[in-house]
Amino acid sequence: MLKGFRDFIMRGNVVDLAVAVVIGGAFGQVVNSLVADVLTPLIGALGGAPDFSAIKLGPIALGKFINTVVNFLVVGAAIYFLVVVPLQEVQRRLKKEAEASPPPPPEPPEEVKLLREILSELRRKA
């Protein structure tokens, strides 16, 4: 039973997933800080205070929902324009470079080299 658990934990994709979760959490903090500390104050400076929490529709705190939607849109836009678009551009450039310069043909195996030498020697003797 412990061997099975050890095999499960040591499986490559489980470790990769654990690393991805940790990195994702850290990256989430970076994006949240970018939105809360940089982008939201910029939006507030351009269009007034970006806080809608005072808006209520009777007992319903509609403003908090609006704040959450705006925060989601700003986070989505930040991830798209600061991560996705630059990565797509890098991938496009790498693909273009790979297509422009095909790799050189691989070195023939030793057997092929030896056969070519034998053939050239036979042709020379004939």
Automatic annotation (TrEMBL):
The keyword Cell membrane applies. Its main location: membrane. Homopentamer. InterPro entries: Mechanosensitive_channel_CS, MS_channel, MSC/AndL, MscL_channel. Pfam families: MscL. Keywords: Cell membrane, Ion channel, Ion transport, Membrane, Transmembrane, Transmembrane helix, Transport. It comes from the Bacteria. This is Large-conductance mechanosensitive channel. The gene is mscL. The chain crosses the membrane at residues 12-31, 65-87.
